[in-house]
Structure formats: structure tokens, C-alpha cells
Design brief:
277 residues, alpha/beta, 12 helices, 5-stranded parallel β-sheet
Length: 277
């Protein structure tokens, strides 16, 4: 899946050429996809436990999953259905909103650094540093020259993370314009979902072409060897969950974390424990 969904670095990205309802490499249908995702759960949980255990013994490696996408693309749903397979003790989840006044007084990466996973952890970012080249670009919040420099800053930052043992998995959840409308209407039709709706979502739909262009530029300029981007077709929730789960599994298997060896005499400790009865 890593090769199938990866964005080639430095190549122009036209998101209109990507089918948001496609299921590349995936199970045949929803039922098979839900079952396949459930089957991945124990393997993911086992690898996470090994990573967490290795971190407790000095292994600095960790994983950072970055989720980006338009409203209703499923960032929160991915956290619920994919990260729900893990032990919360070994996870660090952060949803980034509009910057606070304090955050605006610092360089844009400051709040990102504060939320990074510790060794052994799996970090999950619902939105990320890319908001500062997406919203900032579409809304013209910073001068274009400053915006251009941010792509390079992000690439250098992610290279530093990789060099320090962070496996960065960046997923763009690609939803279609039509599917987003259906999901927004579902929220309006269900009083229990009104809290998830914002009138700003409608305003952002008028800027859809600008956001698609901004995402395309970010994917083109920031899909690197150290931290590639993956485009996840997200119109089908079951496929989105399966694809992100599979990507995480592949990266965790590549890390192959191991339980640390005991730093004490196991036989002697067992003898003492049995002898206490």
C-alpha cells in the first residue's frame, strides 16, 4: 500500500485526477473491508505494545500519523476506528484548531513541537503544521514570500524528526465535493450531529478550488523521502479505515520493535517469588 498510495516527490499534483471513491489494492466491498480492518487490529496492537515496551528501555523510535483533509473527510473517524485498536497509554493524540494568541506569538512550528510523541509512542495529529500552508494560503493570512519559505521549513523539520527516530506517516484523506455535501447534509438532518457542523463549512465550500490547489502544492513540495505523502481515497469510509490501518501496519512491521531483554535474573526472581508462599 505504501507504494500504491504514495505521492511521488516533486511532481505536480492535480487532485482532480484522483478518484475519491476508488479502492486501490483494497478488499472487494464494504463487508470484506470492515472484516479485513478488524483482522488487522490484533497485529497493530501487538506491534504497538512492542514499540511501547522498546521505548521504555531506551529505544527512541516512535510513529507520527498526520491526518489532513477537507471538512468531513474523516479525520476524527479515522482516529476512532483505526487508533481505537491501540492501547491509549501508548498514544498521544492532538487535534489542531485555529492558533491561539499565545501560539501566534511563536513561530508556526512551535505548537507542533510541543505535541510530538515521546519515544515508544504513536502520535496522531488531526490537522498539523500543514494548516499553515493551506488555510494561510487560501485565506492569504501571510505574505506569499513567507508562505513559500514555510514548505522548506516543514521539509527540514520533518527530516530532523526522521533523523531522530520518528516515522512520519502523512495521509491526505481525499474526499469529493459531492460526498462532502452529502455528509454535511447528514449532520444537519441529525440533531445529534449539529455540534459537528459549522456555518464556516459552507463558506469553505465556496473556496473548494483554492483548497484543492493549496493541497496539491503542499503534496508536491512536501512529499519527501524522509516523510512522503499518501493520498487516501476517502469517499468510502470502510476503505479509508482499511487503507490507513494497512499503512500503519506496514510502517510498524518495517520498524520491527522488539520487547527488551530482562535486566534482572529471571530465574532468581522466580525462585524468590515461589519461596514466599
Amino acid at each position: 500500500m505504501s507504494e500504491l498510495l504514495r505521492v511521488p516527490g516533486g511532481e505536480r499534483v492535480d487532485l482532480s485526477a484522483y478518484d475519491a471513491a476508488a479502492t486501490p489494492g483494497g478488499p472487494r466491498d464494504k463487508a470484506a473491508g470492515v472484516a479485513a480492518t478488524a483482522e488487522l487490529g490484533p497485529r497493530l496492537a501487538g506491534l504497538q505494545e512492542r514499540l511501547w515496551a522498546a521505548g521504555s528501555a531506551g529505544d527512541r523510535r516512535r510513529v507520527l500519523l498526520i491526518l489532513q483533509g477537507m471538512d468531513t473527510s474523516g479525520k476524527g473517524g479515522t482516529v476512532k476506528h483505526v487508533i481505537g485498536q491501540f492501547n491509549p497509554s501508548g498514544c498521544r493524540i492532538k487535534a489542531f484548531k485555529a492558533p491561539t494568541p499565545e501560539e501566534l506569538n511563536h513561530p508556526f512550528l512551535w505548537r507542533i513541537v510541543k505535541a510530538l510523541p515521546e519515544p515508544g509512542e504513536i502520535g496522531i495529529f488531526d490537522r498539523s503544521q500543514y494548516e499553515d500552508v493551506l488555510v494561510a494560503r487560501v485565506r492569504e493570512l501571510v505574505p506569499r514570500a513567507s508562505l513559500g519559505r514555510r514548505y522548506g521549513q516543514i521539509n527540514r523539520f520533518e527530516k530532523t524528526l526522521a533523523d531522530d527516530g520518528v516515522t512520519v506517516v502523512k495521509c491526505f484523506l481525499h474526499i469529493s465535493y459531492e460526498q462532502q455535501k452529502r455528509r454535511l447534509l447528514e449532520r444537519l438532518d441529525n440533531p445529534d450531529k449539529h455540534w459537528k457542523f459549522s456555518t464556516g463549512d459552507i463558506d469553505d465550500r465556496t473556496l473548494w478550488p483554492a483548497y484543492q490547489e493549496a493541497y496539491g502544492i503542499a503534496l508536491e513540495r512536501c512529499s519527501t523521502e524522509a516523510a512522503p505523502w499518501f493520498v487516501i481515497p476517502a469517499d468510502r469510509k470502510w476503505y479509508r479505515n482499511w487503507a490507513v490501518s494497512t499503512l500503519l501496519l506496514e510502517h510498524l512491521e518495517a520498524l520491527d520493535p522488539q520487547y527488551p531483554k530482562a535486566d534482572f535474573d529471571v530465574a532468581e526472581s522466580r525462585r524468590r517469588l515461589v519461596g514466599m508462599d
